[in-house]
Backbone:
């Protein structure tokens, strides 16, 4: 990071140094032309105008400002280098004018300055026109095609500079009769010049057409930035054909300023509004002028005098202007805004994503919403603040939108501004608000799918555990008892023939064995997992038990249940917790005469903590440990937990069970 920052600092210093050098060279021009130099004999040029300074300052300062903010963006360097070449052309031409017309010829290098001025203007114009658009707005070619295009354009500029710098003949644009002291072969100039012309014409055409295609195909904000560049360049080119050079100077000087704004802060100046109005009203104005002018001329041949031609032309314009303006407005909005020109199309496109299967539907739908709205950052959080899905990184001010489905709060959607903007616009906020219900449906469906998967896992695990317990109990308990009964009956049958007096004793033992089997069957049945646990989970089963005991109903104790977000419980722990709560609620309903009963289920230090508190009579001082309390302690101990029953303050009973969530 330190090396990167040092490099950026060097670039910034270099950019401002070049800008300062450019302004310093421009400051030398008045000294070169002082003393009436432009009125000397042989001068054929009027000299530089003040608007040349505007152009030079625009390129130098805009480029330095862009380098300051984006030191790795090559557009800033293109601007300052173009400004330096322009001021070099004007400054050395002014010096050459003074040196070549000085009566005593005391100033050196006059011809060299004239030679330098003869070709430095070429790259100063071609670099911004041919090389800058393929690099705009990121400072890097958008593809490998544009990378090769930039190389070819630089080659063409280099060849045309070589051709201009080595061509024989005069450099007498300012001082009449000034000629270079060499005579290059004619074929050299033609070969290099024609090659350069072919490369420059082709690359210029590709730049113009390719930039238009890029603008049409690009997404926000690159589309608006490219259209902004094309608009300011078109405005500059339009001033070339006017008689007023100052208009061209102002327009040309504002091009680098507009380019810098387009790269850095285009959203702050309402560029979209300017583009839409310009692209709408300029063609409409030209259309109205052409229609009125053409029809007036045509009707004037039929009716040479009177207001009839103008009235007829105005009537035709009045009929055409409304439908044409409507169609043109639609085309301009589609060109400038892209998909945002028709929000319903975006809503339909996002809605179509609901019909497609995805591995992560929330993330996929969030990407569709972010793409449709053009946001650089979007994240979905659940009601607890956890990140469900995320797109991009936060940059700039964000806004939060609630995600609701069927009146249930599912979480929040946070969106950031578009790339290059500092905040979310009202239009984007309205669009995302319209898309949020579609996203909420997906979030709700994903949450239900997760809950269903957890419930399926819980029920499957509990069912398998219960089946294993039944197999073990039947094999270890009931199996030996039934085998003993069978053996006893077989022995009694044999004794009936051999020793009839032994039969009663054998039948008595068999009867006792049968009673053991019956008790074992009852024990197995009593130990079956409650059905409500599989149907409703621990929380639902506790509520059902409390309701069946009359709690929460008129005439019964008030009931309150609070639970944390519990993990998937082991079937043994879940059943033990339910049995302990159920037994405690039964004691409250039958013996305590309580008015209020509260149950708390929460997770702490890797344990499930169960608390049942009532405000009833409490434990009797002489009461011992009944069957119910012993059963609760045994169930807690079976899963490695503990149980504590104690008086509550000021009265009532508090039952606390601590059950480990994981096996020790």
Residues:
């Amino acid at each position: 990071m330190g090396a990167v920052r040092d490099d950026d600092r060097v670039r910034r210093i270099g950019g401002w140094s070049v800008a300062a050098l450019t302004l310093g060279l421009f400051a030398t021009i008045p000294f070169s032309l002082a003393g009436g130099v432009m009125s000397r004999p042989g001068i054929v040029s009027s000299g530089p105008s003040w608007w040349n300074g505007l152009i030079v300052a625009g390129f130098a300062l805009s480029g330095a400002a862009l380098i300051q903010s984006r030191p790795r963006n090559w557009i800033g360097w293109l601007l300052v280098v173009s400004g330096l070449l322009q001021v070099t052309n004007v400054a050395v031409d002014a010096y050459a004018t003074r040196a070549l017309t000085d009566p005593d010829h005391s100033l050196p290098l006059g011809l060299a300055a004239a030679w330098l001025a003869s070709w430095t203007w070429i790259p100063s114009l071609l670099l911004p026109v041919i090389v800058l658009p393929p690099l705009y707005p990121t400072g890097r070619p958008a593809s490998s095609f544009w990378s090769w295009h930039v190389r070819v354009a630089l080659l063409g500029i280099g060849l045309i500079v070589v051709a201009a710098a080595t061509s024989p003949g005069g450099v007498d644009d300012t001082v009449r009769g000034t000629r270079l002291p060499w005579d290059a072969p004619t074929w050299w100039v033609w070969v290099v010049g024609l090659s350069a012309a072919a490369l420059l014409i082709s690359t210029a055409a590709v730049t113009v057409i390719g930039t238009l295609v890029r603008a049409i195909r690009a997404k926000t904000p690159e589309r608006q930035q490219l259209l902004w560049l094309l608009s300011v360049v078109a405005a500059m080119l339009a001033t070339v054909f006017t008689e007023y050079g100052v208009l061209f100077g102002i327009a040309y000087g504002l091009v680098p300023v507009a380019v810098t704004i387009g790269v850095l802060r285009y959203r702050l100046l309402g560029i979209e509004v300017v583009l839409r109005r310009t692209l709408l009203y300029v063609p409409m104005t030209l259309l109205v002028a052409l229609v009125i002018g053409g029809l007036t001329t045509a009707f004037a041949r039929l009716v040479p005098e009177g207001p009839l031609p103008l009235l007829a032309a105005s009537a035709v314009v009045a009929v055409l202007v409304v439908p044409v303006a409507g169609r043109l407005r639609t085309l301009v909005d589609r060109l400038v805004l892209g998909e945002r020109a028709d929000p319903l199309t975006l809503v339909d496109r996002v809605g179509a994503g609901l019909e497609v299967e995805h591995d992560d539907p929330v993330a996929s739908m969030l990407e569709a919403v972010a793409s449709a709205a053009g946001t650089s950052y979007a994240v979905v959080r659940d009601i607890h603040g956890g990140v469900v899905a995320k797109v991009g990184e936060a940059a700039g001010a964000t806004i939060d939108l609630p995600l609701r489905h069927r009146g249930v709060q599912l979480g929040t959607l946070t969106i950031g501004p578009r790339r290059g903007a500092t905040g979310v616009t009202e239009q984007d906020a309205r669009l995302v608000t319209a898309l949020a219900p579609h996203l909420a449906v997906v979030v709700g469906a994903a949450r239900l799918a997760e809950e269903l998967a957890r419930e399926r896992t819980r029920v499957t695990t509990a069912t398998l555990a219960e089946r294993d317990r039944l197999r073990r109990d039947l094999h270890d308990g009931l199996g030996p008892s039934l085998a003993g009964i069978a053996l006893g009956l077989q022995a009694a049958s044999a004794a009936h023939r051999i020793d009839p007096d032994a039969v009663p004793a054998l039948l008595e033992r068999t009867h006792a064995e049968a009673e053991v089997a019956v008790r074992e069957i009852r024990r197995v049945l009593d130990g079956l997992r409650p059905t409500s646990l599989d149907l409703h989970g621990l929380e639902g089963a506790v509520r059902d038990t409390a309701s069946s005991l009359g709690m929460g109903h008129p005439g019964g104790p008030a009931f309150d249940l609070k639970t944390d977000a519990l993990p998937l419980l082991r079937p043994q722990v879940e059943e033990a917790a339910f049995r302990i709560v159920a037994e405690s609620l039964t004691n409250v309903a039958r013996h305590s005469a309580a008015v209020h009963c509260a149950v708390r289920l929460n997770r702490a230090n890797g344990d499930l903590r169960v608390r049942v508190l009532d405000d009833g009579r409490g434990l009797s001082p002489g009461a011992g440990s009944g069957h119910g309390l012993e059963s609760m302690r045994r169930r807690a101990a079976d899963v490695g937990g503990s149980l504590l029953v104690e008086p509550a303050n000021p009265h009532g009973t508090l039952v606390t069970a601590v059950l480990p969530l994981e096996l020790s």
